[in-house]
Amino acid sequence: MDRTCEPELMNDPVQAQAYAQADFSSANRLFLELFERYFPDHEPRQVLDLGCGPGEIPLLFAKRYPACHITGIDGAEAMLAFARRNLERQPELKGRISFRKLRIPAKRPSRRYNTILSNSLLHHLPDPKRLWHEIQRFGQPGAAVLVMDLERPASRRAARALVERYAAEEPEILRRDFYNSLCAAFRLSEVQAQLTAAGLTGFQVEKVSDRHLAVYGRLLK
Ligand SMILES: C[S@@+](CC[C@H](N)C(=O)[O-])C[C@H]1O[C@@H](n2cnc3c(N)ncnc32)[C@H](O)[C@@H]1O
């Protein structure tokens, strides 16, 4: 099936609440495991999470890598409100994580990072070039980059089957968003072409679950 874009920012408070309350622990765990597998010797110091949403991944990442500082950015205030609330519940991480409202493309990066993360942002962007371009602008030379996202299924029927398998008990708004996200996501070959066009030739993309793909690599310059 062809790609159908969905709204870029998750600004609707009801939608943000449904997302923030859902259980994404298995996908978040997968994200952390992939980072450890792809970058076993890397020491995350200054970390940027693009499209951080309610901030679950920054919170987990900060606990796993106690020497790092993380900036989570998102263009939707409704999501950031949940991220800040989640951080308040873990006061031991205060001072090591900050959440900022920023919509990419950003004007000019105020600093550069040695680690760039992003989960489930790519499929929200009408033009995927934006993400690859921002990663190059925000990353230090040698920065470790991990992007995970949904992969678009072959058909609407396959997308509906994934919604039934993973979100059968979820509220309708979350089921709708999941279905729309699957339809807005990219195929592995499309992401490969995006990386080549962006000059990210050393980056790899692979299928990492029945609904996710991951892109990883190090920036050269
Ligand atoms: C599906 S959520 C993923 C949230 C989080 N990364 C996670 O793993 O749960 C996608 C997030 O990207 C944000 N987003 C979409 N387009 C964006 C843009 N251009 N700049 C910044 N954030 C954006 C949305 O507001 C939303 O919070």
Can you give keywords for this protein?
Rossmann fold, 221 residues, 21% strand, single chain, alpha/beta, 7-stranded mixed beta sheet, 7 strands, binds S-adenosylmethionine, 41% helix
Q: Can you describe this structure?
A:
The chain has one domain (13-151, 186-218): 3-Layer(aba) Sandwich (Rossmann fold). It is built from eight helices and seven strands, in the order ααβαβαββαβαααββ. It is globular. It is 41% helix and 21% strand. The chain is α/β, with parallel strands linked by helices. S-adenosylmethionine binds next to α3. The site of S-adenosylmethionine has 20 residues, from α3.
- What is the CATH class designation? Alpha Beta
Question: Which term fits the overall shape?
Answer: globular
- The whole-number mean of residue pLDDT values reads 96
* Rg (C-alpha, Å): 16 Å
CATH architecture: 3-Layer(aba) Sandwich
Count of beta strands: 7
Identify the quaternary structure here: single chain
Order of helices and strands: HHEHEHEEHEHHHEE
Determine the CATH topology. Answer: Rossmann fold
Q: Residue share in helices?
A: 40-55%
Q: Regions with pLDDT < 50 over 5+ consecutive residues?
A: none
Provide a quick synopsis of the model.
The protein is an alpha/beta fold and 221 residues long. Helices cover 41% and strands 21% of the residues.
In terms of topology, how is this protein built?
Blueprint: H1 13-21, H2 25-38, E1 46-50, H3 56-64, E2 69-74, H4 77-88, E3 97-101, E4 113-119, H5 129-138, E5 139-150, H6 156-167, H7 172-184, H8 188-198, E6 204-207, E7 212-218
Parallel strand pairs: 1-2, 1-4, 2-3, 4-5
Antiparallel strand pairs: 5-7, 6-7
Helix pairs in contact: 1-4, 6-7
The structure holds S-adenosylmethionine.
